[in-house]
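My current task is to audit a protein record that another person submitted. I need someone to confirm that the token line plausibly describes how this chain folds. Take the sequence as given and treat only the tokens as open to question. This is what I was given:
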Amino acid sequence: MQLGFFNEERRYEKLTQLGDSFEKLNAVIDREIFRPILDETLKKRAKGSWWKTFL
């Protein structure tokens, strides 16, 4: 099934109407505090095999 151009936008609107819990979390949590951890993890992942990051 191929989705139309506006389907994603409509789904997000519907989630907002239903009380999307991710929107509530975004209002409370500053996700930028995790950026250094994510950047470092992605650097390590790029150097080695992808499966080693899960060991």
Observations:
- Residues 7-54 form one domain.
- DSSP finds three helices and no strands in the chain.
